[in-house]
Design a protein that fits this description.
Elements: H1 26-30, H2 32-38, H3 41-70, H4 91-102, H5 117-145, E1 155-157, E2 161-166, E3 169-178, E4 184-198, E5 204-212, E6 222-223, E7 229-234, H6 246-249, E8 255-264, E9 270-278, E10 282-284, E11 286-288, E12 292-294, E13 299-301, E14 309-311
Parallel strand pairs: 2-10
Antiparallel strand pairs: 1-3, 2-3, 3-7, 4-5, 4-6, 4-8, 8-9, 11-14, 12-13
Length: about 325
């Protein structure tokens, strides 16, 4: 069967694009900080460089304009003349003075004199503007670098889900694992079944979402994720798969979206990892191979067998049958 369009990719990316926003696109500018954080790195770096470059050139031009209007550029080498900014002869020197002031380098060669009130006002404006720009852009870059999205790449999901019996009950199962030694605090897992359906009133719902119980009532959805765990959904009369059999699985079209959330132990930030399983990735009558073994004083996890399954005797009938 050819691969069909997924709602959520295996890497967790949602295949949803928003279009024809019209006047609603202005909402992105009302929350400019979040908009910048959501941009790709190349656009963030470009905006970062352009903002500082334009701000530097504009402020340097204002210092040069003050010196030009006062006539300081023509009398800068006169030792008896008191200019607004000492030793500013042209635009490059005005630019260097701005950089020294903004970066608080203070070489001491260029400085504002007391006979220049407009220079003092411009200096105060420059200090306030520089603080705002630094707080906005550097804060944006810091938040983007500290986002826990990369932490989700070290959370693994099995490539396929399996259906087999556990404790005498037919169950849908998949495996999750954490590749890092640092733990996910308060890790919780949720599952959504996405499937098209038609209501009794004739309304067609192309992406209807239904919750799959993975232990919400018993607390099994709260994970202690220090080793790979097999997440289990019991197929019973309350399950959307109550009528699913091995034969009907071949003709079904659905997608199971798995969402794993937790707090990164090292940073305290919330991390979310996602994946999905289509009907082609659900193996009937299979079970996951064990990956843990007891070594000398510790438990060893063999991730080379993380995705491996083997066949087990499983009735081909649905729970309803």
């Amino acid at each position: 069967r050819r691969e069909r369009q997924r709602f959520v990719d295996k890497n967790g990316r949602c295949n949803v694009q928003h279009g024809n926003l019209g006047g609603e696109s202005s909402r992105y500018l009302s929350d400019l900080f979040t908009t910048l954080v959501d941009l790709k790195w190349r656009w963030n770096l470009l905006i970062f460089l352009l903002t500082y470059t334009v701000a530097w050139l504009v402020m340097a031009s204002m210092w040069w304009g003050i010196a030009y209007l006062r006539g300081d550029l023509h009398q800068a080498h006169d030792n008896t003349y008191s200019p607004c900014v000492a030793n500013v002869y042209n635009f490059p020197s005005a630019f260097l003075f701005f950089i020294e002031t903004e970066a608080t380098i203070g070489y001491g060669h260029r400085y504002i004199t007391e006979r220049c009130p407009e220079g003092i006002v411009l200096f105060l404006f420059q200090s306030l503007l520089g603080s705002i720009v630094d707080a906005f852009l550097i804060g944006c870059m810091f938040i983007k670098m500290s986002q826990p999205k990369k932490r989700a790449e070290t959370l693994m999901f099995s490539r396929a889900a399996v259906i087999s019996q556990r404790d005498g009950k037919l169950c849908l199962m998949f495996r999750v694992g954490n590749l890092r030694n640092s733990h996910m605090v308060s890790a919780q897992i949720r599952c959504k079944l996405i499937k098209s359906r038609q209501t009794p009133e004739g309304e067609f719902l192309p992406l209807d979402q239904c919750e799959l119980d993975v232990g919400f009532g018993t607390g099994a959805d709260q994970l202690f994720l220090v080793s790979p765990l097999t997440i289990c959904h019991e197929i019973n009369s309350e399950s959307p798969f109550f009528c699913l059999s091995q034969r009907s699985l071949r003709s079904e079209q659905f997608e199971i979206v798995v969402i794993l959330e937790g707090i990164v132990e090292t940073t305290g930030m919330t991390c979310q990892a996602r994946t999905s399983y289509t009907e082609d990735e659900v193996l009937w009558g299979h079970r996951f191979l064990p990956v843990m073994s007891l070594e000398d004083g510790f438990f060893h996890v063999d991730y080379s067998q993380f995705h491996a399954t083997f066949e087990v005797p499983t009735p081909p009938y649905s729970v309803k049958e």
